[in-house]
Every structure is written in structure tokens, then in C-alpha cells.
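Bumping with the actual sequence this time:
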Amino acid sequence: MAQITEHTRDEVQKIVYEFFADECEVDISEISDQTNIIKDLDGDSLMFLELIEIFKKKYNLEIELKTIGKYAVKHPVETIGQLIDMQMLIIEHENHIMDLD
């Protein structure tokens, strides 16, 4: 599990915003925590998987994709803010994320 600091959420938010701005070819100023990933950005689940890989490398995470998938089924993500919140839980709890339910 990675150590969560006050700086972590800002760092995660910056990475997520920049990722979607680049992948969806929109100006970063058009993205907020309330932005709907599918409706507003034409995003998809493959982008989420790419982001997970980015964060796995950055924070040296040990988490299985099936664990994230099971969690995501129970806690669907629609907005950028929800995605950031889920990513924070993944960073903090890794494979123990299912224990939060």
C-alpha cells in the first residue's frame, strides 16, 4: 500500500485531468471533478485501465485488475471526481479495497 499524503490527491487529480485532456483531445480547462467521462469526454473503460497502469507504476501498487473490476461493479464511476476517489482508495488499500464494503 502506498502512503497517502495531502499532496497525493492533488497529484492524482493532475494526472487524471492531463490524461483525459490528452486522450480525449479537450482543453484541460474543460475538465472538472463533475465532468462525466462517457457523456462529456467520450471516454471508455480502456482509458480507465490505462490510468490504472499509470498509477500502478507510479505508486508501485500490487493490485489485480479483477479486484478493481469487482469493486467497480459495486461502485460504478461516471465522473472524473468519482474516478479520482476510486483511484485514491486503490492507492491506499490495493487488493484490500474489497474489504471496505
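The C-alpha cells above came from a reply further down the thread. Residues 33 and 82 are 8 Å apart (CA to CA).
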